[in-house]
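User: Okay, second chain of the day. Same drill as before: sequence in, C-alpha coordinates out.
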Amino acid sequence: MLFRPAFETALAAAEAMLDGWNEDADRFRRAAMAVRRGEEADGLVAKAAAETREAIEHLLEEIEGALDRLPAGDRRLTELLQILVSAQALAESVERSWDVLAVAPEAQGPAHIAHEYAIAAQ
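Assistant: Same drill. C-alpha coordinates below.
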Protein backbone atom coordinates (compact mmCIF):
# COMPACT_ATOMS: atom_id res chain seq x y z
CA MET A 1 0.00 0.00 0.00
CA LEU A 2 1.15 3.47 -0.80
CA PHE A 3 0.72 4.95 2.68
CA ARG A 4 2.42 2.22 4.69
CA PRO A 5 5.99 3.50 4.24
CA ALA A 6 7.14 6.64 5.99
CA PHE A 7 4.21 8.99 5.75
CA GLU A 8 6.19 11.97 4.45
CA THR A 9 7.74 9.82 1.73
CA ALA A 10 4.31 8.60 0.69
CA LEU A 11 2.96 12.16 0.60
CA ALA A 12 5.84 13.24 -1.65
CA ALA A 13 5.23 10.24 -3.91
CA ALA A 14 1.51 11.05 -4.15
CA GLU A 15 2.27 14.67 -5.01
CA ALA A 16 4.73 13.55 -7.71
CA MET A 17 2.17 11.17 -9.19
CA LEU A 18 -0.45 13.93 -9.23
CA ASP A 19 1.99 16.28 -11.00
CA GLY A 20 2.60 13.69 -13.71
CA TRP A 21 -1.09 12.90 -14.07
CA ASN A 22 -1.87 16.61 -14.29
CA GLU A 23 0.38 16.85 -17.35
CA ASP A 24 -1.39 13.81 -18.80
CA ALA A 25 -4.77 15.40 -18.04
CA ASP A 26 -3.73 18.46 -20.05
CA ARG A 27 -3.03 16.19 -23.02
CA PHE A 28 -6.40 14.44 -22.54
CA ARG A 29 -8.21 17.81 -22.40
CA ARG A 30 -6.55 18.93 -25.64
CA ALA A 31 -7.49 15.64 -27.31
CA ALA A 32 -11.09 15.91 -26.06
CA MET A 33 -11.35 19.47 -27.40
CA ALA A 34 -10.11 18.22 -30.78
CA VAL A 35 -12.82 15.54 -30.79
CA ARG A 36 -15.44 18.17 -29.97
CA ARG A 37 -14.19 20.16 -33.00
CA GLY A 38 -14.87 17.12 -35.17
CA GLU A 39 -11.48 15.44 -35.27
CA GLU A 40 -11.28 11.69 -34.92
CA ALA A 41 -10.68 10.36 -31.41
CA ASP A 42 -7.29 8.73 -30.83
CA GLY A 43 -7.74 5.30 -29.29
CA LEU A 44 -4.32 5.29 -27.63
CA VAL A 45 -5.02 8.59 -25.89
CA ALA A 46 -8.43 7.28 -24.84
CA LYS A 47 -6.85 4.16 -23.35
CA ALA A 48 -4.26 6.27 -21.56
CA ALA A 49 -7.06 8.41 -20.11
CA ALA A 50 -8.84 5.29 -18.88
CA GLU A 51 -5.66 3.94 -17.27
CA THR A 52 -4.93 7.28 -15.64
CA ARG A 53 -8.49 7.46 -14.34
CA GLU A 54 -8.12 4.02 -12.77
CA ALA A 55 -4.76 4.94 -11.23
CA ILE A 56 -6.20 8.11 -9.69
CA GLU A 57 -9.14 6.14 -8.31
CA HIS A 58 -6.68 3.74 -6.71
CA LEU A 59 -4.78 6.66 -5.17
CA LEU A 60 -8.05 8.06 -3.82
CA GLU A 61 -8.77 4.72 -2.15
CA GLU A 62 -5.29 4.75 -0.62
CA ILE A 63 -5.75 8.30 0.66
CA GLU A 64 -9.12 7.47 2.19
CA GLY A 65 -7.55 4.49 3.94
CA ALA A 66 -4.74 6.69 5.24
CA LEU A 67 -7.28 9.22 6.51
CA ASP A 68 -9.03 6.45 8.42
CA ARG A 69 -5.76 5.45 10.08
CA LEU A 70 -4.68 8.96 11.13
CA PRO A 71 -5.50 9.92 14.70
CA ALA A 72 -7.76 12.92 15.19
CA GLY A 73 -5.83 16.18 15.28
CA ASP A 74 -2.77 14.78 13.50
CA ARG A 75 -0.78 17.58 11.85
CA ARG A 76 -0.47 15.54 8.66
CA LEU A 77 -4.23 15.53 8.19
CA THR A 78 -4.15 18.90 6.42
CA GLU A 79 -1.50 17.75 3.95
CA LEU A 80 -3.40 14.58 3.21
CA LEU A 81 -6.67 16.45 2.71
CA GLN A 82 -4.97 18.82 0.26
CA ILE A 83 -3.74 15.86 -1.76
CA LEU A 84 -7.21 14.29 -1.59
CA VAL A 85 -8.87 17.44 -2.96
CA SER A 86 -6.28 17.70 -5.75
CA ALA A 87 -6.74 14.04 -6.66
CA GLN A 88 -10.53 14.39 -6.71
CA ALA A 89 -10.37 17.42 -9.01
CA LEU A 90 -7.92 15.64 -11.29
CA ALA A 91 -10.10 12.52 -11.36
CA GLU A 92 -13.08 14.64 -12.40
CA SER A 93 -11.09 16.33 -15.17
CA VAL A 94 -9.79 13.05 -16.55
CA GLU A 95 -13.29 11.55 -16.34
CA ARG A 96 -14.75 14.41 -18.41
CA SER A 97 -12.03 13.97 -21.04
CA TRP A 98 -12.54 10.19 -21.04
CA ASP A 99 -16.28 10.67 -21.64
CA VAL A 100 -15.43 12.50 -24.88
CA LEU A 101 -12.51 10.30 -25.92
CA ALA A 102 -14.35 7.02 -25.32
CA VAL A 103 -15.90 7.25 -28.79
CA ALA A 104 -12.62 6.03 -30.31
CA PRO A 105 -13.11 2.48 -31.65
CA GLU A 106 -9.88 1.25 -30.01
CA ALA A 107 -11.08 2.50 -26.61
CA GLN A 108 -14.32 0.57 -26.76
CA GLY A 109 -12.80 -2.87 -27.00
CA PRO A 110 -14.02 -5.71 -29.19
CA ALA A 111 -17.37 -5.27 -30.88
CA HIS A 112 -20.08 -7.86 -30.30
CA ILE A 113 -22.45 -8.45 -33.17
CA ALA A 114 -25.74 -9.99 -32.12
CA HIS A 115 -26.51 -13.25 -33.89
CA GLU A 116 -29.57 -11.96 -35.80
CA TYR A 117 -27.58 -9.01 -37.14
CA ALA A 118 -24.75 -11.26 -38.26
CA ILE A 119 -27.21 -13.43 -40.21
CA ALA A 120 -28.85 -10.37 -41.78
CA ALA A 121 -25.44 -9.11 -42.89
CA GLN A 122 -24.77 -12.28 -44.87
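Confidence is low (pLDDT under 50) at residues 110-122.

User: Thanks, on to the next one.
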